[in-house]
């Protein structure tokens, strides 16, 4: 028998009076309006959003710290378990890489000699900054990540974002101290690419899954699973030659598996590549300096570039993260 | 402080949705739906106060942090709050099974609606599997989350929990 006298079972009569109903209706209407404004990309919404994301960034950064540390601890445990196999594998890989090193040096000398013969113009080096992923955005709409670098660090909308494995995405929103990176596999991501040794042109499009679609290949293009995919730079936004992934699938249904593990990003580098299209779309603020023309204004621990980069390179080691940062970023920048 | 427990716990869930856990691509929908489920559960727990406006604000915060269109999770949270409020509280003779059934119906409707809304937003059919997987996971997690929220509400599960889970029997 139920105890009707217990406060737990006291009937809470909902009062569906007109003002409450009106408020509910108003809230539904507000949501609908926000959705529409968000769809058309209203400037006020975007500005407000940037400001609010800046405000919530410290909270997110603090909240993500234990999660990132826990993930690293798990990875460490896994690596300890597989340590002996890993050492054997690395020894073999090291032997192979020594051969590659020798061949690369030979090729570098050849390229330098040929460039000298051609009197080729030196390409400018890429400036980049390294930061940490502080939030992960998932859902039916977006595959994006929030990083702890913003306009204060010289970052602008449209810059390529890489990690040690390859291209990760590009910046789509930039606040003062944080920026949002649209990942390669997002539904809105379109990257013009070159495929394989023949440099077949195509478009790598995200569809929110782990692999990218490879569209707009020329008729009769011959591709093979395992072919390298890298950026073509023909969009005038991303630099040419950034590693994207490898071709998978079969003829007629080719896909690209990104090198970067997009589900568990940790440390990423932003390449300050100021293409003309990008400068028009997001002009630099007054008083700021172009990334390729000079080192961006940064008030932080900065180290100048290693000798292999032709121009000074800024490296921001944000927080306690180390990871790939300089090495991986430099390798990509040099490419 | 007790008055703000529902909002604070949902706020915690909202922040958790944005933390980089490194979850696989198929599991991306689980945490946001758990947040929506918490809104539904708080509306069903007797004495707990989470007004629809509060649920909408928390949903907007989730939208903001996720970088998705503003209003999407707010709409989901508001719908869960409305349905949760109308379903009657757990103390009114409704038991866990009854609310579980309502959640199954609600999350199925929300998943379909969410998928259609996302497809409409992009003018292309969105992959439905992550949404379906998230909805199934939230159905499986419902008793666990409800137990957790009751524990947060009362500090213990004790006799009230047993009364609630006996329900109308």
Descriptive account of the structure:
The complex is a heterodimer of chains A (335) and B (169). By secondary structure, chain A is α+β, with helices and mostly antiparallel strands. Chain A has 3 domains: 44-118, no CATH class; 127-184 and 261-334, Thrombin, subunit H, CATH 2.40.10; 190-258, Rod shape-determining protein MreC, domain 2 (Thrombin, subunit H). In chain A, 34% of the residues lie in helices and 21% in strands. Chain A contains 5 helices and 12 strands. A 6-stranded antiparallel β-barrel of chain A has the order 1-2-5-4-3-12. A 6-stranded antiparallel barrel of chain A has the order 6-7-8-11-10-9. In chain A, strand 3 (160-162) and strand 4 (167-174) form a beta hairpin. The radius of gyration of chain A is 24 Å and the shape is globular. Mean pLDDT of chain A is 76; it is low at 1-11 and 286-335. With 169 residues, chain B is mainly α. Chain B has one domain (2-166): Orthogonal Bundle (Arp2/3 complex 21 kDa subunit ARPC3). In chain B, 72% of the residues lie in helices and 0% in strands. Chain B has helices spanning 5-18, 30-44, 52-66, 72-86, 96-122, 129-154, 158-166. The radius of gyration of chain B is 16 Å and the shape is globular. Chain B starts with a helix and ends with a helix. In chain B, 50% of the residues are buried. The chains are: A alpha+beta (335), B mainly alpha (169). Chains A and B meet through helix 1, helix 2, strand 1 and strand 2 of A and helix 1, helix 3, helix 4, helix 5 and helix 7 of B.
What Rg of chain A do the Cα atoms give? Answer: 24 Å
Q: Sum up the overall morphology of chain B in one term.
A: globular
How many separate domains of chain A? Answer: 3
In whole angstroms, the N-to-C terminal distance of chain B is 33 Å
* Helix share bin of chain B: over 70%
């Amino acid at each position: 028998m139920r105890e009707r006298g217990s406060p737990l079972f006291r009937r809470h009569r909902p009062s569906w009076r007109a003002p409450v109903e009106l408020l509910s209706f108003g809230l539904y209407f507000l949501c609908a309006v926000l959705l529409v404004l968000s769809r058309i990309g209203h400037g006020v919404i975007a500005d407000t959003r940037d400001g609010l994301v800046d405000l919530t960034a410290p909270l997110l950064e603090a909240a993500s710290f234990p999660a990132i540390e826990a993930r690293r601890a798990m990875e460490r445990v896994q690596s300890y378990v597989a340590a002996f196999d890993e050492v054997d594998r690395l020894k073999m890989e090291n032997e192979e890489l020594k051969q590659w090193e020798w061949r690369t040096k030979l090729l570098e000398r050849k390229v330098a000699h040929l460039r000298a013969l051609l009197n080729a113009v030196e390409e400018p080096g890429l400036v980049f900054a390294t930061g940490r992923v502080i939030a992960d955005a998932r859902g039916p709409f977006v595959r994006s990540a929030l990083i702890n670098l913003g306009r204060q660090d010289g970052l602008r909308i449209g810059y390529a974002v890489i990690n040690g494995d390859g291209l990760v995405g590009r910046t789509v929103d930039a606040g003062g101290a944080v920026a949002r990176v649209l990942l390669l596999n997002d539904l809105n991501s379109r990257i013009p690419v070159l495929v394989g040794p023949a440099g077949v042109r195509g478009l790598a499009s995200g569809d929110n899954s782990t692999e990218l679609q490879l569209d707009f290949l020329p008729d009769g293009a011959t591709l093979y699973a395992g072919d390298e995919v890298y950026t073509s730079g023909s969009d005038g936004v991303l630099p040419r030659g950034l590693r994207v992934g490898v071709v998978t699938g079969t003829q007629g249904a080719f896909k690209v598996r990104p090198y970067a593990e997009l589900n568990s990003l940790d440390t990423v580098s932003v390449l300050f590549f100021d293409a003309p299209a990008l400068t028009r779309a997001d002009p630099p603020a007054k008083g700021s300096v172009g990334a390729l023309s000079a080192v961006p204004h940064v008030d932080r621990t900065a180290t100048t570039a290693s000798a292999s980069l032709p121009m000074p390179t800024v490296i921001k080691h944000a927080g306690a993260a180390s990871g790939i940062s300089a090495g991986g970023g430099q390798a990509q920048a040099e490419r | 402080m007790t008055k703000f427990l529902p909002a604070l716990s949902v706020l915690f869930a909202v922040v958790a949705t944005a933390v980089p856990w490194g979850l696989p691509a198929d599991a991306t929908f689980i945490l946001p739906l758990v947040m929506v489920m918490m809104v539904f559960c708080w509306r069903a727990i007797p004495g707990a106060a989470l007004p629809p406006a509060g649920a909408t604000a928390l949903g907007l915060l989730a939208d903001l942090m996720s970088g998705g269109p503003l209003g999407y999770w707010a709409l989901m949270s508001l719908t869960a709050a409305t349905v949760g409020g109308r379903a009657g509280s757990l103390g009114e003779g409704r038991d866990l099974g009854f609310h579980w059934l309502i959640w199954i119906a609600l999350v199925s409707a929300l998943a379909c609606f969410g998928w259609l809304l996302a497809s409409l937003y992009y003018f292309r059919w969105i992959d439905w599997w992550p949404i379906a997987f998230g909805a199934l996971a939230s159905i499986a997690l419902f008793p666990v989350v409800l137990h957790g929220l009751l524990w947060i509400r009362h500090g213990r599960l004790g006799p009230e929990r047993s009364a609630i889970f006996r329900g109308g029997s």
